[in-house]
Amino acid sequence: MDKIMKFNRIANWLIIIFTLLSTWGCYRTPPALLRIGLNTWPGYEFIFLAQEQGLFAKAGISVQLIEFPSLGDSRLAFERGQLDVMASTLSEVLLAKEHLQSCPPIFYVIDYSTGGDVILAQSSLTKIADLRGKRIGLELGSVNMYLLARALEKSNLTLDDVILVPMTPDVMKYAFYNRTVDAVVTYPPLSVILQQTGQTQQLFSSQAIPQEIIDVLVVQADVLATRIDELVAFIRALEEAVQYSLTYPNKAYPLMAEREGISVQAFSQILNQQLQMIPLAKQRPFFEPQGILEQSLTLMDNTFRKVGYLTSSQRTINCVMSKPVLRATDQ
User: Fold this and answer.
1) Where is the SsuA/THI5-like domain positioned along the sequence (predicted)?
2) What number of other Cβ atoms are within 10 A of residue 86's Cβ?
């Protein structure tokens, strides 16, 4: 009898152990989400496309895309540690550095603007010089400030010669329609919507300052140190999304255009004429010492300091991190 009871106890323990082992996978801690902050911009649509096509899951990473109404809102969330990665221009990188006292590492280049960022004015204004004393709607703490500063500089004007009216992109449209501002600094899709009215004058665009407005991915320093494999996987998935769009534009473009709220034709025109996507094979020149990124960062830093937008003594050092791109390229 004792032997039977002993056997039953052993059998029961074996059943318990087997059950625990067999259900262990169900209770494992799921992989941490990679929180990506971004706003509306055609170049960022490929990130959404990668999510839509399941490419991040295929790469073995869990990604949460958090969309913000403006670049400034995304930057503030990044500064507060609410994001792991931020899609932004170099302007937001420098402004984040100003507040964080260290430069968030840039680990990927999405695109650069070749005419997408514009200054649009009421039809009665025909040149930048006409903006003297006029009200300019723009998003402070964003690339809007840089584009305006560079445009004014080229016409021998400064920010002191115009009246800055801070506003978010969603307010900007109505401010322009209602003529409470004389001009706005903007980019697609809002620029497309405004230009469709036929009542705007384009006074300046990023085409006049090539490779100065660059869209990048930046990461929290601790995430870079501990989760670099996920960043590499993210880059590879994003590259796959870009290639998918090239192979199947009739499938990819309608999805991305719908999210932007513009026509497929307008979206295609933006990709062909107003921004230049940077595939993985062309990333290296941006990350080289004294390469495109460092040169553009230095120019932007100097411009912002000239207008008093940056004041810290720390210059643009340690902003560029090539390791994730190089690893993604070598795979």
Assistant:
1) 45-252
2) 27
